[in-house]
Amino acid sequence: MSAKSHSAVMLRRNLRHITRNPTSIFNAVLMPIVMMLMFVYVFGDAFDVGVDYIDYATPGLMLLAVCYGLGAVATSVNSDMTKGIINRFKVMDVSRGAVLNGHVIASVLTNVIAITALVGVAFLLGFDPAAGPLDWLGVAGMIVLLGFAAGWITVALGLAAKSPETAGMAAVPLVMLPFFSSAIVPAEKMGQGVRQFAEYQPFTPIIETLRGLLDGAPQTGDLIAAIAWCVGITIVGYLWASSTFTKRA
Amino acid sequence: MNVDLTLTVSRLWFIERNLREPSKSPMPHLCQTPCQRRVRAGTGAAPIVAGMSDSAIEATGLRKAFGDKTVLDGVDLTVRTGTVFSLLGPNGAGKTTTVNILTTLIKPDAGTVRVAGHDIAGAAKAVRRSIGVTGQFAAVDELLTGRENLQLMTDLSGGRRTVGGLLERFDLIEAADKPAATYSGGMRRKLDLAMTLVGDPRIIFLDEPTTGLDPRSRRTMWDIIRDLVAGGVTIFLTTQYLEEADQLADRIAVLDQGRLVAEGTAGELKRRLPGTHVRLRFTAAEPLDAAARLFDGSTTDAEALTLRVPSDGGTASLHALLNRLDEYSLHAEEFSVHTPDLDDVFLALTGHTTKVDAK
């Protein structure tokens, strides 16, 4: 049996896991929507961002939606390693990559579903982007790229953690990171130090790219930086995950 | 149980040797005696095996250390096709490490292993295709149902057995569509073993298959294992339960601190050790004292009115003992033969009991 079909079996298994675990569905899909309602209705009017707040916040919340699903991914990767099922797969000669691919692809698919739902709700709240079909395609591409980067780094974190509980914690920084970017409020409104951090951290160019695409006017500089960050993080995450997997399993 | 004479004599020798130097000497590897030939008692389907080529598992000189800690220190073992081989030892003896090496999960520091005729170093894939492993902790997917777990194995292995058939065989039909997380320990073990059987392996490794199970589930598991053996499957079983090895295994190897300290059938291990005795209970002190004078080395318990007479438990010596009682017109109220259990064997072989500080 090929590695590809093993990956497909593993993906099916991981998707089943997600549907069986209400907490992970809530965190990955509903939580970003709750955050959106909160920011738009509760805090939104307090922020002066120059445009309609829903238009400003939606790209940032898309990124938040990617991050919110990650805790469950790290936990589930770690459970596979610590609960013995990995030994069964190894003795069955399941390709090692298939196990990790399954987790990453399931994570990306969850992201896509979560963001589709989020954007749907955004439209209901009056989201009015200027993006054309090509821009939307760009948004989709950016999200998938981000999904893979976040997925691989999270799988690596999950593999490196000692227990499923600590694995869940390891993904928390990734959930916090969007708040220290221009996702919710523009970086220039932040205090010294935080502002510099926000300007140079990877999520800011990614958000700015999404914002540009949705406005129908992407900035080449942001786009290149965003793609570079995503590809870089994917490679680091992949290599880290693979070596940890070989060492541990 | 028929045991070749040469084997018996040589085993006697090594057990005596081990008794003299209880903690140090690993026993010489007896399975390599070329004349070994045995018939398993109990099951009609027992294959009669002879010669070296019928080995399902052959390991020589296995060594493994994790950092400074030596876990296996030169282990040799041979398991004949169609038999149950039990590796018996306390926690930390190296049982799981042995299983992990034999099943290609970890590499030994030294030594060679052939499983189903394939070298684990050079032909790991071929080994994996021939074996099934049920580890110490039930490796089931808790979020999936029993049926989905089996289907997962079928999808991954191109399994030859049907999911429905396995569910039925293991009495899991009612629970088939419930998540495995809701299963009891016994059901989980059964599902785990069923998952192992999907690929129809001819050699099955069971690492402490009944640890943590209640007595009833343990019996069920034993029955399942016996069924597998009747179907000609070779089983490599580790256990820390002496009774389990006694119940299931054709041959038992005792592992202690990374070395095999004894090997043989349960009966052989028990018979060859001092401690087997006949117990006679009398109705009064007088015949008890009279009998005590008849047998050298006997000990009396005046309160219980019992006499312990050392014996090998064989019919000849029992006959002699009863005749002698008769000769002197002594009548015992009760007569029984006591054989040491495997715990006693373990103590005698290793110089310490099986109780080791929990990890």
TrEMBL record, chain A:
It is found in: Cell membrane; Membrane. Coiled coil: none annotated. GO terms for cellular component: ATP-binding cassette (ABC) transporter complex. GO terms for biological process: response to antibiotic. InterPro entries: ABC2_TM, ABC2_TM_bact-type, ABC_2_transport, Nod_factor_ABC_transporter. Keywords: Antibiotic resistance, Cell membrane, Membrane, Transmembrane, Transmembrane helix, Transport. GO terms for molecular function: ABC-type transporter activity. The chain crosses the membrane at residues 21-44, 56-77, 98-124, 136-160, 167-187, 223-241. The keyword Ribonucleoprotein does not apply. It is a multi-pass membrane protein. Residues 23-248 form the ABC transmembrane type-2 domain. Belongs to the ABC-2 integral membrane protein family. PANTHER family: NODULATION PROTEIN J. This is Transport permease protein. The lineage of its organism: Bacteria, Bacillati, Actinomycetota, Actinomycetes, Micromonosporales.
From TrEMBL, chain B:
Residues 57-282 form the ABC transporter domain. It is found in: Cell membrane. It comes from the Bacteria. Signal peptide: none annotated. One of its GO terms (cellular component) is plasma membrane. Gene3D superfamilies: P-loop containing nucleotide triphosphate hydrolases. Transmembrane segments: none annotated. GO terms for molecular function: ATP binding; ATP hydrolysis activity. GO terms for biological process: daunorubicin transport; doxorubicin transport; response to antibiotic. It is a peripheral membrane protein. Keywords: Antibiotic resistance, ATP-binding, Cell membrane, Membrane, Nucleotide-binding, Translocase, Transport. The keyword ATP-binding applies. The keyword Mitochondrion does not apply. PANTHER family: ABC TRANSPORTER ATP-BINDING PROTEIN, DOXORUBICIN RESISTANCE ATP-BINDING PROTEIN DRRA. Belongs to the ABC transporter superfamily. Drug exporter-1 (DrugE1) (TC 3.A.1.105) family. This is ABC-2 type transport system ATP-binding protein. It comes from Actinoplanes italicus.
